[in-house]
Design goal:
The protein is of the alpha/beta class. It is 36% helix and 18% strand. The protein has 13 helices and 14 strands. The strands form three sheets. It has an eight-stranded mixed sheet with strand order 5-6-8-7-11-14-12-13, with helices on both faces. A four-stranded antiparallel sheet has the order 2-3-1-4, with helices on one face. Strands 9-10 form a two-stranded antiparallel ribbon. It catalyses: Preferential release of a C-terminal lysine or arginine amino acid.
């Protein structure tokens, strides 16, 4: 879902019950057409334990939209009765969550090392960053911009031919733990940079004239959590699945709290945007919460988390050279630009709109994948604390959020068989925007 540097918290307690295997869990999509439907969704959210997929929370539900949410098996009947009794139109996107989880690894056979067409765990990605930099010293350098709450190094790859005073593009992936296709794209970008430099005209020009800062996984602790608690037992051949990434917006495990007697919950979102009390109140109005037990907790202070501080400090330090910011997410098939926390438009709205339109056309040219584009607030929903909004307000005038495949059939569980096509088409859009920036440096 939409990147939220403000909102990094999620209900893990509900996912951690021993023996829960997600058999019979469902994902619903409800169509919201009027104010009564919104009120009914609020009622449902207050009386049933549902996990919002899109939008991130009940406060972001708006007219003439759809709402995707996950329901536990024991609550499915109650939810279906409520929807039918109130004449709410709905469809079942995923009829059995456990089966869909198994289908995510549909490429058959796990590679022992790193693979660009499979989902890689953090240790594999970390080793890959070292290897790809060592093997391509004329094109890639690796640095550490900070550490996570749990002490993991945040590795950044600088991709481009070494020349002084080059403009740069910053790309981050893996903000949200459940969005595994996102880190896959950052890895794919580096692969294609190495593979096609000196062979393909456009990529060669981009790497000669631009530097690309690639943060393969921003939310490392959360990403590790989804692997160690969810998939590694499965990959070892056991049937036990103790939790699931779709129950985690993005865990950084940076702020543990007690909520009503339940087990301590990891702190998940990373506050960035709000700098004043007035801005914090605006964020709360637009989907963030001041409750530490909320999935959308806005944090104690702006930039309160180690990961956030590392990211924003690096961008601020290099602000004079960074001309574009891309943050990669899923799902929805959208290309968004500021603003998301407000309905106001950026100063260069016409330029950003035209650029996004051209980029999604380029993306669709390969596999026919259709993207929606526009300002975040009107294109998807009001969402406080977006990193693209923050980057834009720092002076980075080309700031975009990519919401990758799909539109709901798989949701956050996009199969490995779609990694290649998803990354190929996304790369076309990224290269198009980067080439445009070369001709419009500021």
């Amino acid at each position: 879902m939409l990147v939220s540097l403000i909102l990094v918290s999620v209900a893990l307690a509900s996912a951690n019950h021993s023996g829960e295997d997600f058999e019979g869990h469902k994902v619903f999509r409800v169509t919201v057409e009027d104010e009564n439907h919104i009120n009914l969704m609020h009622e449902l959210a207050s009386t049933s334990q549902i996990d919002f997929w899109k939008p991130d929370s009940i406060t972001q539900v708006k007219l003439h939209s759809t709402v995707d949410f996950h329901v536990k098996a024991e609550d499915v009947g109650t939810v279906e009765d409520f929807l039918e009794q109130n004449d709410l139109y709905y469809e079942v996107l995923i009829g059995n969550l456990r089966s869909m989880m198994a289908a995510q690894f549909d490429s058959h056979g796990r590679a022992t090392g790193h693979s660009y067409t499979k989902y890689n765990n953090w240790k594999t990605i970390e080793d890959w960053t070292q290897q790809v930099a060592a093997e391509n010293p004329d094109l890639i350098s690796r640095s550490v911009i900070g550490t996570t709450f749990e002490g993991r190094s945040m590795h950044l790859l600088k991709v481009g031919k070494a020349k002084p005073n080059k403009p740069a593009v910053f790309i981050d992936c893996g903000f949200h733990a459940r969005e595994w296709i996102s880190p896959a794209f950052c890895q794919w970008f580096v692969r294609e940079a190495v593979r096609t430099y000196g062979q393909e005209i456009q990529m060669t020009e981009l790497l000669d004239k631009l530097d690309f800062y690639i943060l393969p996984v921003f939310n490392i602790d959360g990403y590790v959590y989804t692997w160690t608690k969810v998939y590694e037992p499965k990959l070892r051949g056991t049937d036990e699945i103790k939790t699931i990434p779709i129950l985690i917006i993005s865990s950084t495990s940076t702020f543990r709290i007690e909520c009503g007697g339940r087990p301590a919950l990891p702190r998940l979102e990373l506050p960035v945007l709000a700098q004043t009390l007035t801005e914090t109140l605006m964020l709360v109005e637009n989907g963030a919460s001041t409750s530490p037990c909320s999935d959308t907790y806005c944090g104690s202070t702006a930039e309160s988390e180690k990961e956030t501080k590392a990211l924003v400090n690096f961008i601020r330090k290099n602000l004079s050279s960074i001309k574009a910011y891309f943050t990669i997410h899923s799902y929805s098939q959208m290309l968004l630009y500021p603003y998301s926390y407000s309905y106001k438009l950026p100063q260069n709205n016409a330029e950003l709109n035209a650029l996004a339109k051209a980029a999604v056309k380029e993306l669709a040219s390969l596999h026919g994948t259709k993207y929606t584009y526009g300002p975040g607030a009107t294109t998807i929903y009001l969402a406080a604390g977006g990193s693209d909004d923050w980057a834009y307000d720092q002076g980075i005038k080309y700031s975009f959020t990519f919401e990758l495949r799909d539109t709901g059939k798989y949701g956050f569980l996009l199969p490995e068989s779609q990694i290649r096509a998803t990354c190929e088409e996304t790369l076309l859009a990224v290269k198009h925007i980067a080439s445009y920036i070369l001709g419009h440096l500021y």
